[in-house]
Amino acid sequence: MKARHFGALMLAIASGLLLPACSDNDSPMKGLLSDEPEPEIWRFALEEIGGSVQDAWAQEFRRRIEVLSDGQVQVEVYPYGSIGTSPQLTRLVKDGRVHLAFASPGHVADDIPEAGIFLLPFLFPENDRANRRILADDELRALLQAGWQDAGLQLLDLVPEGWMMWTADRALHTPEDFSGLRMRTMTAPQQAEVFRAWGAEPVPLPYSEVYDALQLGQVDGQSNPVFAIAEMNFHEVQSVMTVPRATRFVASVVSNRNWHQNLNEEHRQWLEAARSGMPEFIDEIQRDYNRRHLQQLRESGRITVEPLTDDQRARFRDASLPARDAYRERAGERGERLLQRVQSLSGQQTAD
Hints:
There is one protein chain. The chain has one domain: Bacterial extracellular solute-binding protein, family 7 (D-Maltodextrin-Binding Protein, domain 2, 3-Layer(aba) Sandwich), CATH 3.40.190.170. Strand 5, helix 7 and strand 6 (about 200-205) form a beta-alpha-beta unit. The strands form two sheets. Strands 1, 2, 3, 4, 7, 8, 9 and 10 form an eight-stranded mixed sheet that branches. Strands 5-6 form a two-stranded parallel sheet. It contains 13 helices and ten strands. The chain is of the alpha/beta class and about 350 residues long. It has helices at about 1-20, 55-70, 85-95, 105-110, 130-135, 140-150, 190-195, 210-215, 225-230, 255-260, 265-275, 280-300, 310-345, and strands spanning about 40-45, 75-80, 100-105, 155-170, 180-185, 200-205, 220-225, 240-245, 250-255, 305.
């Protein structure tokens, strides 16, 4: 009897504890489940390593998007090499497996010939502010956008990352100095045309393979902005860096075309707001990066830095003009209109 009474008492106590806990106002799951929706993830792939100019752009973009959306959109950034090479990243965007990516004209021009305009030397102005104005020109953007859209991509931004330098184990002061030089190029035929016009032997190679190719003597030289040369340690296997001020490295920020078109109005507003002011932000970043890395290279004592004179640059400019003809032939009517627009905006003669 006592046992039965004891069991009944314990059951009553347990019931008394559970009933309040199961009330509508104090669910036992409260605090474990949230009514907030899971954040939407935008995957963003880079052509450069962490700590680079592209990484700075992506990290600032991520910060802005997450603030604007109050965390409803989060951005995952994938540095170069983590999910593929540059052409593979563009393919991932086209396939919709990555939402955003950097895409340089050095490989994009394989599929979008108009993009090869950024590989033509001595075309864009030397002044940074004037160059930004040209890259922001509505007519120029519309012509470029048409090419990107034909390839299933949405062009979101153009990001200048600094002047391209030439490195080799000899001085490159004249086009004749390029004679027989095996010069690593990106895969786009347009860049190969430029170095071929100067007498070099173009050797297309992925960015990740350049250091080993230089070290093993498979190529004799390469071209990249200062910060990339320092970050990838090319100065360890090259002894002379020439400063030609001929071509800027301009990367594009792209998205999948269908993904961009299907964004709802709120997400589209966040995307546009996050991009606002980015050209000025990243231009300051790239100038600082390249300035600091140039100083580091000089102080390393491992590579000689040799700027070209105006007369030397003029010789290279004249020798490169056949590459513009090759661009016209490859990029067609749209490419011709792009070339004329850039020349007009930069105050150049429209006939070469």
